[in-house]
Amino acid sequence: MSTIEKIAVQPRTESGSTGSRRLRTQGIVPAVMYGHKKGAVSIQLAGEDVRALLKDGSKVVDLELDGTLEKTLLRDVQWDTFSKHILHVDFLRVDPDERIHVEIPVAFRGTAPGVLAGGIFEQPLHTIEVECLAVEIPDAIHVKIGNLQIGDSVHVSDLVDLPAGLKILNPADSVVVQISEDAKAVKEEEEVEDQPADSEASTEG
Predict the structure, then answer these.
(1) pTM (global) more than 0.90
(2) Partners of 45 in the beta sheet?
(3) pLDDT tens digit string along 176-192?
(4) Domains detected in the chain
């Protein structure tokens, strides 16, 4: 579970693309805080604070603005074309007791024996949609694949060891991961089996 960070932010007085570029050259990231029946507020914070949030995987952030704490959810991060520089950050105000819908990335544990045997690893779901408290968003949904053979699959209904209070919203029969046969290898094997017998056998006698 991500920790809740506390960061001091300042009101943003410069607006527009020119003002935002000027802030970024100073190592400051323009941002906005919105939601929870309150107006949007343009803010700015140190670029190193944003990078620390991303490195730690923190999603819930206490923003201190003019002496007032606002509990927020790190909602969106905009990067430049080459994903090297942070252009803008969105923070959504949340209530500690509020349940929200979010998508959580899938993470795998172990190595599937079926893949080592030549099977194809297929992952139809890269994220799982869940409902949980805003302050208890898990970093990932972990799926054990150490026993999966060719032909095996894991459905949403198979997911276990989920955090308390977390509700999965995807259909129970949705496939998260499956190990399929290598169709190309199977076709080649069938072609070999369909080849005619050695010509020497046909000329005997």
Answers:
(1) no
(2) 29
(3) 999 999 876 555 555 55
(4) 5-94 (2.40.240.10), 100-190 (2.170.120.20)
